[in-house]
């Protein structure tokens, strides 16, 4: 698939003789793709550009609606909110919406389910901008727009908060108890009016209900933070074990991700094993099931580990450290920041050491690349990080996802179809619910063409990419990158717990979105069939009408 041309063209015209020498070259995609046109657009920028005139930038109010009308049970959704994704949504947006729902599940106990005929539901569509109504308006199909460039997880979570009944923080009735607004410094008149006490009560009520609901359900599992377990192997004898068991956990989904930091200063043969203790009628005191041994040779750092679990019964997680051989006199196995959540684990962990220094000392427009990682479907990806931004974006982190292929790779379909790649900078707060990790996703659209080229952007990197030789001599082809120059500002990257112990941790994961893409094309097909059926009916009725002069007037058929 490599197009090599090595020949000379000699063209003679009456006045000049031109020799054009074409050196060996490969057809390749020259430019990376900026998912948002290289702009850091927030909700308000997007909506302003779209010419929308909404309350506080992104809130839809109907004419009869006043701010006070939000109070009341009638504006509440059930704790499981039905949603429907309309066909015009971008595939990447659909994937990010599902990720946003996961964050709600992790942090709030509010759940979402696909609409199956419930009276009221949220219908997500691709409008011109990102906006929502506030609360359940009881209009049946209540639309929420996720337009172009709104496909960021934070934006989607924001719009859904409105749909659930929340106003902007700056409109809280107790706002002025905490901040002083310098009204004379505001050039444009934007109404960030405070809301009445009633609304404040309403929000408190929602929070109260969420809280009570959470108390009733085990929606999230975490059993410690602020302490760590240490199994000192230095003084132990070979064969000695230490065990740490979690409290009881009641799974709802059948898959879990166990995440923890592990410091291994023990002997090279000493092991840490993960088990689950499952309880059922036959095993009222639990039955131990081995999951995996953590391999991680002794290192002078806290290593982040993820273990995928698949438990459906009531269970506990069991950590078991074993002293195997004679090791050093000091040292041991330590565990910290253990979090168990009902999510899928990331597939890839990339630690960048001394990250503040890397940000400060890397020249602008200079990438560092993660090691390539291969997803479960057999595609290999690589993340390019520009620690001091791409050209024109100093002081930012820029992040791009690239496809990678090695000579001899086989079995993949090209161009790569509908894989959503998520690049997450992990907030390393000990408690998973208090993290606000930074993430952006891109989806490989097999039909997307590269700019100024006939090549497919996500085609085989051996065809559209460039060959790379690593310092260790390994060679592979790297395709063009898709991502954003405005992934995160340095200021923000140095806040929260994005950097801990000096290091930043990037998590990568890929998910197949073929079903979402297929669902879209199937509904289009369905709509086409419906139109065909309706047309047939129309013709039939027209015909009937003409013959009998009576007929049934067809209502406007809604292909949706
Ligand atoms: Zn808003």
How does this structure look, described?
By secondary structure, the protein is an alpha+beta fold. It folds into three domains: 34-177, 3-Layer(aba) Sandwich (Collagenase (Catalytic Domain)); 230-341, Jelly Rolls; 348-516, Apoptosis, Tumor Necrosis Factor Receptor Associated Protein 2, Chain A (Sandwich), CATH 2.60.210.10. Helices cover 19% and strands 31% of the residues. It has eight helices and 28 strands. The protein has helices at residues 43-49, 91-107, 153-164, 197-216, 355-361, 461-464, 490-493, 514-548, and strands spanning 7-12, 17-22, 33-34, 59-60, 80-85, 111-114, 121-125, 130-133, 141-146, 228-232, 241-245, 256-264, 271-279, 287-294, 302-309, 314-322, 332-341, 348-352, 368-369, 373-374, 380-386, 396-405, 419-425, 438-443, 466-469, 475-489, 499-500, 503-512. The strands form six sheets. Strands 3, 19, 20, 21, 22, 25 and 26 form a seven-stranded mixed beta sheet that branches. The chain has a six-stranded mixed beta sheet with strand order 4-8-9-7-5-6. Strands 18, 23, 24, 27 and 28 form a five-stranded antiparallel beta sheet that branches. Helix 2 packs across helix 3 (153-164). The longest helix is centred in the C-terminal third of the chain and has 35 residues, at 514-548. The radius of gyration is 28 Å and the shape is globular. The model is unreliable at 1-25, 64-69, 189-226 and 537-560 (pLDDT under 50). Zinc ion binds at residues 58-59, 158, 162, 168. InterPro entries: ConA-like_dom_sf, MAM_dom, MATH/TRAF_dom, MetalloPept_cat_dom_sf, Peptidase_M12A, Peptidase_Metallo, TRAF-like. One of its GO terms (molecular function) is metalloendopeptidase activity. It is an enzyme of class 3 (hydrolase). One of its GO terms (cellular component) is membrane.
